[in-house]
Amino acid sequence: MLASRISRQQASRFFSLLKRNNSTLVIAEHNNEKLTPITLNTVAAAKKLGGDVSCLVVGTQCSKVAEEVSKIEGVNKVLLADNDAFKGFLPEAISPLLVATQNQFKYTHILAGATAFGKNLIPRTAALLDVSPISDIIGVESPDTFIRTIYAGNAIQTVKSNDAVKIITVRGTAFAPVEVTGGSAATEPAPGSDVTNDLSEFVSQELTKSDRPELTGAKTVISGGRGMKNGENFKLLYDLADKMHAAVGASRAAVDAGFVPNDMQVGQTGKIVAPELYIAVGISGAIQHLAGMKDSKIIVAINKDPDAPIFQVADYGLVMDLFKAVPELDSLIK
Ligand SMILES: Cc1cc2nc3c(=O)[nH]c(=O)nc-3n(C[C@H](O)[C@H](O)[C@H](O)COP(=O)(O)OP(=O)(O)OC[C@H]3O[C@@H](n4cnc5c(N)ncnc54)[C@H](O)[C@@H]3O)c2cc1C
Questions:
Q1: pLDDT tens-digit map of 148-196
Q2: For labeling, which of 20, 128, 274, 293 is most exposed (least CB within 10 Å)?
Q3: Which atom of ligand 1 lies nearest, measured to the CA of 266?
């Protein structure tokens, strides 16, 4: 009895010692002007590891972002890498910078959000450092053990890593964001910021401009599927979304059919969302779609097929033709 109590105490002391010795680098995601909200979820995951949290701000003319990051609760230090070579946030340019930073500071963990940016950067960096990346974690069990989903969210996996540095992407919806206030971290230049990138060149990007909230951060999301029939009919959802201050998403079938652009796709191979309210319109509820939205607080489904699988996860289901239901709903919302 005594022996088991001592060993439990020893184990807990060992874990807190491990935590104290941790030092984590979070790679901030931003557009050179403003921080992307997933950074705040990623810092929350970093805090669960214990120890110091530093943030790397890498970009082009991004000192404003470094200022913003220095105020984040729980960030101890900001490393700034500001260089034209980082235009377009290409992983070919940023990975060598991360390797140089790691060689100097010997972090125990490097974290980025599980977004297109993080998913682009982390595997390349892990390969250069010769460790296994751990992707899309939804929980931290201890400094070396992490929880993640597999099989489109149908099974939960616990992964233990013995690598000297754990290189991880974090699912934002699984960690409540930290506050952007309360911190006062010092900023210093990141080592190896003077990189050149001969492997790839940033040409241009076209950004969708919208007054609606960003899909992954919106409190309400209305998504349309193949049932919308064409792109013009999505206007029904845009009008409703404007009244409800909602973001508009889509199933992959709607994206593949060209109804809407692919940055609106929700699901396993699209964006992961967990809003307060998710309204699925003309979406059948394939597991790959559910993988991106089933953690939403309240799910409403509108579908004319009473056997559609979406009704199995819906809190409220409306078996109705969407072309009748959506205008009716719209007329009821002031
Ligand atoms: C590797 C892989 C990854 C994938 N990743 C994703 C992903 O990230 N996201 C994703 O969404 N899918 C993904 N898919 C595709 C997925 O399997 C489904 O094919 C897709 O989600 C179906 O989209 P849908 O529900 O819009 O279309 P459908 O399955 O065709 O469903 C359309 C629904 O609309 C209803 N409907 C039709 N007309 C009306 C009407 N007038 N009123 C009301 N209801 C109506 C129908 O009853 C039906 O239920 C992936 C598939 C694979 C293999």
A1: 999 888 899 999 999 999 999 999 999 999 999 988 999 999 998 888 8
A2: 20
A3: 9
Q: Is 51 annotated as a binding residue?
A: no
d(CA 25, CA 107): 7
**Residue 245 annotated as lining a ligand binding site:** no
| Contacts for 226 with CB less than 8 Å, ≥ 6 apart | 251, 253, 254, 257, 282, 283, 284
**pLDDT value, residue 322:** 98
Nearest atom within ligand 1 for CA of residue 226:
26
Structure tokens belonging to residue 249: 């998403």
Kindly state if the Cβ of 224 falls inside 6 Å of ligand 1.
no
Closest of 318, 244, 231 to residue 275, by C-alpha: 244
Written as one letter, the residue type at 270 is G
Res 3: pLDDT:
44
Share of the chain above pLDDT 70, in %: 94
C-beta 264 within 6 A of ligand 1? no
In the chain, what are the domains? Answer: 16-189 (3.40.50.620), 215-332 (3.40.50.1220)
CA 321 / ligand 1 centre spacing (Å): 16
Helix axes 234-244, 322-332, angle to 10 degrees: 20
Mutate which of 154, 215, 226, 278 for ligand 1 pocket (most atoms within 8 A of beta carbon): 226
At residue 1, does pLDDT exceed 60?
no
Residue 140 parent element (H or E): strand 133-142
Residue 103, CA distances (Å) to 50, 128, 192, 220 in order: 21, 12, 10, 43
60 is in an annotated binding site: no
Q: Give yes or no for residue 185 CB within 6 A of ligand 1.
A: no
